[in-house]
Every structure is written in C-alpha cells, then in structure tokens.
Amino acid sequence: MTHDSLRRPSYGAHSPVVGKRGARTRQRILDAALTLIERDGLHDVHVDDIAAAAQVSRATLYQYFDSKQQVFAVLLEECGSALVDVLDRLGPLGPTAKGLENLYRWLGQWTAVYDRYAVLFAQWAQLEWSGTPLREGVARFVEQYASRIDEQLESAGSGGAGRADTAIAVTLTVHRSNAFLRSDPEATAGMTDEEVLGNLAVILQLVMFPETPSHVLATRGTYGAARTVVPPPPREREDRFADRSDRVRGTVRQLLDAAARCLELRGYAGTSIDDIAGEGGVTRSAVYLYFTDKLDLLETLAQEGSAELRAVVERMPASLTPPLLSAWLIEYVTAYRRHSGVVQVWTQEQTSSPVVRQAGREVGAVVMRAVATLLTGVRRTYPLDLRVGVVVMAALLERLPHGLAVRTTEVSVEEVATTMAAVIVNGLLNPGRG
User: Fold this and answer.
1) Across-strand partners of 433?
2) How distant is the alpha carbon of residue 165 from its chain centre?
3) How far apart are CA 388 and CA 207, in angstroms?
4) I want to staple 292 with a disulfide (CB 3.0 to 4.6 A). Which of 89, 119, 296, 368 is the partner?
C-alpha cells in the first residue's frame, strides 16, 4: 500500500467537513506556503517545509491539499479571484476625466493585490513558459482578464481593429510594470505612490484612448526627467571553442541550441542534462565532453544572448517614426525569441549565478538608457514623469514579445511587432491633443 493511499480525501475550500477551525488551518497553510515561495522559490519549497511553517503535521496538510502543486494552484486561484474582484469594480473607461479617474482607481486596487501576491505573479510568468499542467490555466486567466478589458473598450466606443491585442498588452504591461517598480525602487525614487500610479494611468489611458485631450491627462500626470543610467562595462566574453575544429564547434552549437529550446519549454529548474542531450540528439556523456554541467551551458547562453540583445537595443533610433519603430521591433522581437529561455531565467532570477545576473543587468541598463533617450526627445502637451515612462517601456519590451503569444494560436513576429508599435506610439510617443 502506498503512502498516498493512506490519506483521507482532501478538504476543499468550501467543504462542509472543514468548519471554522479547519478553514483557519487551511488558510494558515496557504499563508505559510506563500511566505516560503517568496523566500525560497517554488521549486525549493517542499511539503514538509510548508507543514513546519504552518505548524501542522504532514498528515494534517494532506487533509486539505493533495500535493504542493495543489497548494500552489489554490494560491493562484485565490490571486486570480482577487484580481477579478478588482476588475468587477472597474468603472466605465473612455477619453474623459471620469474615465481616467476610474482607470487610476483600478490601477491602485490592482497594485494592492500585486503587493500581496507578488511572488505568484513572478511564478505566473514562469508557468507561461513551462510545460507544467498549470500553464494552460495561467494562459486562460490572462485571456479571460484581457477579454473583460476588451469589453470595457468596446463599451467606450474603442475601434475593433487590434482591440483584443491592446487589451492583452494592457494586462501584461500593468503586471510587468508592477514587477519592475517593486524590484527596483530607485527607478521612481522621490515620487509618491500616487504620482507613480497617476503617470501609469496617463500612459495606459493613451494606449487605450490615444485621442484623450491633454487637459484631461494633466489631472493625473506630473513632470519629471528620466533617470540617468550608465550601463556597466560588458563582461569580456571568451570563446573557449574558438580554436577547435569545425566538427567540434558544430556539436557545441547543436548543444547550445538544444539547451535554449529546453529552457524555453521547461525553465531552468525543469531542465536536466538528459533533456538537453535528448533534444540535441546526443548522449549524456557527449554533453559533458564540452560543458561542466547545466549551469555552464546556461552561462554560455546568457553571455551570447546578452551580447546580441545589447547590440540590437543600441541600434534603437533616438527618434522613432512608426515605420522605423516597426522595423526595429521586428529585429528586436526576433532576437528576443531566439534567446527567450535565458531571458526568462535572468528576469525571473531563476539562478543566483553571477555570470547570468550580470548578463541580465547589462541588457537592462542598455535598455533603460536607450528608452530614456527616446522618451526625452518627445515634445508633449501634457505632463508625464519620464521615470515612470521608462519603467513602462522597459516592462513592455521585456514582457510583450512572449506575452502577446499567450493565446493558443501562433502569433508571428510581425504581428507582435505591430501591436507593440501601436502601444509605444499611442502610450509613450504621443505628443498629446489640445
């Protein structure tokens, strides 16, 4: 008889068997799990850890949850329900002072939910890239939430062309902007929470309603210059296979490409050497001929990806007309997708490797500098604090290339670039209307 067969059926959230005391125990388990996941990460938290933190036995925990995976699934549902409640309170949107005020209030409520469940939002992004059973649920939630925003846009008379993509872009940009603001408080140093939210509201208002009059935007926007960011000198990248034969270099390239595909599908924690060997069509021992371990492969990929993405970002024109912007975004999204697995590793801090983190910081700093230059060059007829503008554009550059393809159908590079261009032109390069 297995250990699992000794468990009684777990108690659901509304089980009549639980009672008030059981409901408190169940919530204590969930709260303990949330704290541990934030501290240690999902993959390093185990059932025994959760039970100890909640001060219950392992057997007691199994009366409420079948597994660690179910604990996490319930936390996701709890977080999702809180966001849906926030969305249900969203008042009518539109290119008016009332519409902007409703958007501002909604963003404040969203931020409150984000602050409680920040670690789950980070895990949502990882699940979007993983092959876990929860991936479908996360994608379905994003679509459901974006659909509700789409309905709001339709009610406000927003045009139908690209409206669904705009709704998804707004959803993902709000999420990732919150992540940036939480992880880098210096990005908006000196600003109050109300000022940050007000400027975020102005940008998203213009994304959804680019015709909003400037005097309406002035009710929430504030003035502020972009922060000066000096990128660190790039780490010298050594090609340790430079003097090897073409055959060896070809095999190394094959293994690196296989590792990149595995990272995109499974994430760093979910990828093994056996996965990489299988994907690359070689034996496990063949991998170890050229790389010490999985981390060695990741660090090599991170340095490659950082170098290419930095080169693309540095080619961002300082003044972007729509045709120039679309052409640059196609180049950027293409490069991003090529390195998407490692990008997710460094943006979600899936490893503590100094090499990987340095690669990510180098790209991030170059992005911040290029975006600040671009946004500073726009002459606006309404106030906008460019510290928030830089955060928002950095967030959408990091999130939208993959996030816009959350839907079940494949989304082309050109389609993604078109949507991103519309968001950037309307929300961040908009000179305003008197």
Assistant:
1) 213
2) 16
3) 15
4) 296
Chain-centre distance of CA 50, in angstroms?
A: 26
* Torsions phi, psi for 268 (to 5 deg): -65, -50
Question: What residues contact 58, with CB distance under 8 A and at least 6 apart?
Answer: 47, 48, 51
* DSSP SS3 for 213: strand
DSSP character at residue 433: B
Query: What predicted TM-score, i.e. pTM, was given to this entire model?
Result: 0.83
Amino acid at 166: T
Q: Measured in Å, how far apart are the chain's first and last C-alpha atoms?
A: 75
Task: For residue 398, give both structure tokens.
Answer: 């990091």
Contact 76, 35 (CB under 8 A): no
Residues 6+ apart with CB under 8 A from 321: none
The residues, ordered by sequence, that sit 6+ positions from 103 with a Cβ below 8 Å of its Cβ are 90, 93, 201, 204, 205
Task: Render pLDDT for 187-239 as a digit per residue (tens, 0 to 9).
Answer: 999 999 999 999 999 999 999 999 999 999 999 999 999 988 887 777 777 78
Distance CA 287, CA 297 (A): 9
Residues in the chain: 434
Question: What is the C-alpha separation between 303 and 256, in angstroms, rounded?
Answer: 12
How far is residue 227's CA from residue 14's CA, in Å, rounded to a whole number? 49
List, as one string, the DSSP characters of 372-422: HHHHHT---SS--BHHHHHHHHHHHHHHHHHHTT-SSS---HHHHHHHHHH
How many secondary structure helices (H) and strands (E) does the chain include? Answer: 18, 0
d(CA 365, CA 47): 39
CA dihedral (371, 377, 381, 386) positive or negative: positive
* pLDDT of 15: 46
Q: How far apart are CA 393 and CA 296, in angstroms?
A: 32
Taking the C-alpha atoms of residue 57 and residue 34, their distance in angstroms, rounded to an integer, is 18
Tokens (6 digits) for 176: 């990732």
The domains of the chain, with CATH numbers, are 4-66 (1.10.10.60)
The structure tokens 């409680």 sit at 116
